[in-house]
Predict the structure.
Amino acid sequence: MNGQLRKLPLTGLLLLLVLAFLLDISAGAVRIPLHDIFRILLAPSPGDDASWSFIIEKIRLPKAITAVLAGCGLSVGGLQMQTLFRNPLADPGVLGITAGASLGVAAVLLSGGSMATIYAIKELSSPGSWLIAGAACVGAGGVMLLVLVLSGRLRDNVLMLIIGLMIGSITLALISIWQYFSNPEEVKDFLLWTFGSLGGVTGRQLLILGVTVLTGLVAAFLSSKMLDALLLGENYARSMGLTVRRARTIIVCTTSLLAGSITAFCGPIGFIGIAVPHLARLFFNTSSHRVLVPACCLIGTILLLLCDCISQWPGTQSVLPINIITSLVGAPLVILLLVRKRDLNVNAYR
Amino acid sequence: MINYLDVWGLKIIGNSDKWRLRQAVIFFVVLAAMFTDNRRLVFFFLSATAFAAGIGCRQPPAGRAADRPVTPRSTIRYAHGFRIDYYEGYRDVSIFDRKAGRTDTLHYLLVEKGVDPPANRPGLPVIVTPVQRMAVISSMHIAMAEFVGVADRITGLGSIQYVSSPIVRAGIRAGKVKQVGIDAGINNEAVIAMHPGVLIVMSNPGTGGGTYKTLTDAGIPVLPDADWLETTPLGRAEWVKLVAALVDRDETVETKFDSLARSYRRLADIGSHASPKPSVITDMPFKGTWYVPAGESFMAQFLRDAGANYHWSDTKGTGSLALGFEAVAPVALTADVWINLGNVDSKADVAAKDNRFGSLHPFQTGALYNYNRRINDLGSNDYWESGSMHPDLILADLIRILHPGLLPGDSLYYYKQLK
Amino acid sequence: MNAGSPLLYAKGLQTGYHPSGKKIVVTSGLPDLVIGSGRLICLLGANGSGKSTLLRTLAGLQSALGGTVEVGRATAVGGEMGRGGAMELADCRHLSPAEMARSISLVLTDRVGGANLNVYSLVALGRYPWSGWLGRLDQTDRAAIERAIVAAGIQDLRHRKIHTLSDGESQKVMLARALAQDTPVLMLDEPTAHLDLPSRIRLMRLLHHLTREMNKGILLSTHELDLALQVADEVWLLQTAGPLHKGAPEDMVLEGVFEAAFAGEDVVFDRTTGVFRISPEGERRIRLAGEGTIAFWTRRALQREGYVVGADMRADQLVRITEEMGATRWILETPDGSRSFGSIADLLRALAGVRKD
């Protein structure tokens, strides 16, 4: 094995996690010293600067927690999809879940020509954050049900992948049509949503996100044995005692829960789901999902927290969309690691 | 040159064909005459031919357009994006595209009907005035047309979905006003079919006419309107003089606009000297990004003229600043007034967008003012239509909001308080 | 468990597929098939005869169109085979995959490409039916894995990544995994397909050893008739759209089953040697005098040259094998005289020359 690849011990990564978290809550347009941050969080008093308290408690802390949840959820979702389809390029949206969520959001944000029913929904209330999140959930859930129904009739996982791709294309086409008929304001709103954002998930929304992501993570961890068996393919898995159809259903549901809820509240965030499982496999040098699920959580969290720091665009007042940062930072990182690990054989994935 | 065959009603044949046909007719007539050996018949036909040829020749023009400048019929004082130069028989409209330091100028010749375009300005787009039918894209154009009094000359609209003007709405109902689409989605056939004297589009003058090439090729002049790049409300509104020039009402509109400008300046005087200046935040963030008007935008100018303390009043830029929620939060937490909230109609709507808005001071005191008072049954907001041509009313609203009691009366026109 | 006691029993089996409602029958009218403990059974058949389908149906990977498959339930958790008493058989359809997994383990032709798996982890996966909740391995599991690694002979491959293995090593690793699963029945689908000759032989020998030492019932499908004839306790010969013949391989040879099964114009099965003769039947006759290995191989060479060879043929030519000063000499006696050669090649060249004349 390549000796130059430092194998970060577990404690090292945990330290990095703490560091990343602290960095994330310190980063922002307003300079707040770290000890003040701790004081506001741990020992709040009425004498604190009101805007600092607001910023720490209502802006930075929820954002950091969202980053932790999204980092865990997306990476574990990606891990599951990569194992189920034995495809190193699979990400949590590969079944079309993210596309379904986008479709739901587009339905409420874009006017879509003569979509009278959608107009009626919009008349009920202007698109508040709950409406957007709800629409995304409905969209993701719809796609998940479609995939489950179809997967029952399919023996082959490759067909499921193709169906996911097709669903993605159809939703893209529909969204494009709606964009075409919308006014620039609406198109801009939707575009902003597609850039992804970790901010804005507060209070009850954060609670719901937390509950769903934790449920998904626990379910994924408990499916470790199932996932291990699937590494050898469905035939071997069945011969080892796995009820493949049930396993597929559980995995699809878990991933949908993770990907769907995160997309609903944060918009589509890319790259984390593809890259982190590879990083986890590289760093921990194992294929056992019992180890990989927590490892993905750890690495995914660190990565997303760091990306969030960078998106604050230090030194300026602006914020860059998180999607752009995850791709710009993450892709070269993975390329670098894969190039250095010279003995990686891509044929191993067939 | 009108071929005499046109007089005979043979319009469908092309010019060169007509010539050939004419030659052929003459030939056969002469041949027939020779064979009939009837000199009177020949003479009759030949003279008829010559006479008709004579009639067919073009009438001499009323008078060629010279490029002698004449007294300007209107002056542009506030707008920086265009100017009108008056000449005998035509006007030269220059539209400036100021981007990246350079200034490109686009010229359009507004030539009076029956007058030839000047010979020394070849290749420039020509619009024949006065325009009888026009197609427009934005709501502001409708407002401009109303201001000039020619709203009934609009035959095409970018989108017929959201219109406030009663005249235009009547026209839509009667089927006289049709939808033509926007930008790349423009329906060329619909525009060509209505054959307007001009199509006014919202485009950056610099982004070439590639989108509209089909239309210009079909002989429909396309005039770009860059009012949204102006940095002052009056400058924006002054683009109405362009529409006035198109329909030959320069003087009337000049007077009307002067009165508007006086009214605005008077209000601005009152507002900018008012004290104390309340702090104001505008617009609504989406998740983590809060777009606020930059210091050189016309919204910032409105706020300065209304006597507001706008935190970003000194920033550069004529558009918006994309700031993080955190960057605006300290200002928003202690602001006095929150205006221009967007697509919300009540405090509950605002809270539904993001529950953190409840901590902002303007929310807690109820000082939320949105520009959606004048929304008609179609959902069309008149703020974007007539509001663009009545900056004085908007300014008056803002002064009444920020400095209650300073102006007589307290009813708002475009704004309303969100409850 | 006594040797020979049935571990798997298939009755009136009919294999096939039913894609979208239609029924496609691959094999029907099969006799009762029994896999007994301590028996190595080879499933032979031409390409497309339905071997794989039959194997997969017996293994429970696909459902049968008709008939039943009964498997012995292994109640022991790990541990050695060979406990006394017969196993009770239960219908496959009533068993969950987990229960099936304790009875039958497989080695398939599927390529396995799990990223970053090393050999030990892959073999450890074989403990799936026995391991704990999250896949935890306890003492028993580790012992079983060790035994499997030793049995398959892959001790020094333990830490290698599976994508770095050669085909032969890979095959052994998959076998070790199946051994770690500790089931009474082991089924292999074309295990010798990608192996070179020495590896093939080693694998067959290993399988034979497993039946004898560990009392496993092993079913393997293969093309290799010669290896099967050497090592199988029972052969099931599946013909395309024909009946399945089963029995001891030697009985089947003598009954002419192979000849009938593979009968064709150029395909001839030689009963005496147990191989398929590639060369066409000869026309010329030659007598061969000699015994033992040398005579056997001389006969083979002559047959390749198109001769019919016999000891008591009425022929013009005679080849006699003698020893002269410790070296073998081939004497060719023709009506024209006799010549002596030191190698079969020389002899054949001479014969070719004679033919020309």
